[in-house]
């Protein structure tokens, strides 16, 4: 199902996507850590790569990829993910669950959302 409207809000670092059956505002950080790229999804592995330190990431631009997807260019240089309409819809519908699971994975790995905090580890 193709979206009816896509709006990039650079100031709020989010992408608003309107489908016939729902409207979603997806933060850039969320889209970045759930990128469908091989870099994040892995190359056929079961567990996706845990991307951390993307709290401040923004979106430089978006462009359509054929009639089926969106290519998002992030300000950290990542631009290899092709987000199909169905995947964007799935990300919107499952935002709360996906985000909660992501935060749990970060905690379990001892990593954080802030790139400055991720680089510092206090022992003792």
TrEMBL record:
Query: Is Transport among this UniProt entry's keywords?
Result: no
What UniProt keywords are attached to this protein's entry? Iron, Isomerase, Metal-binding
**InterPro entries in UniProt:** GBBH-like_N, GBBH-like_N_sf
State the Gene Ontology terms under molecular function: isomerase activity; metal ion binding
For the keyword Transmembrane helix, the answer is no
Q: Please give the Pfam families that the UniProt record associates with this protein.
A: GBBH-like_N (PF06155)
Q: Which Gene3D superfamilies match?
A: 3.30.2020.30
UniProt superkingdom: Bacteria
Q: Which residues form the Gamma-butyrobetaine hydroxylase-like N-terminal domain?
A: 6-89
- The protein here is known as Phosphoribosylformimino-5-aminoimidazole carboxamide ribotide isomerase
């Amino acid at each position: 199902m193709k979206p009816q409207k896509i709006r990039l809000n650079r100031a709020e670092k989010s992408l608003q996507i309107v489908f016939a059956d729902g409207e979603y505002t997806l933060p850039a950080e969320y889209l970045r850590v759930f990128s469908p790229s091989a870099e994040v999804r892995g190359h056929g592995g079961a567990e996706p790569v845990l991307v951390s330190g993307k709290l401040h990431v923004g979106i430089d631009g978006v462009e359509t990829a054929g009639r089926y997807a969106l290519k998002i260019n992030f300000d950290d240089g990542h631009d290899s993910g092709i987000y199909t309409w169905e995947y964007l819809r799935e990300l919107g519908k499952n935002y709360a669950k996906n985000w909660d699971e992501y935060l749990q994975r970060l905690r379990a790995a001892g990593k954080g959302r802030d790139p400055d905090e991720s680089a510092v580890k206090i022992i003792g």
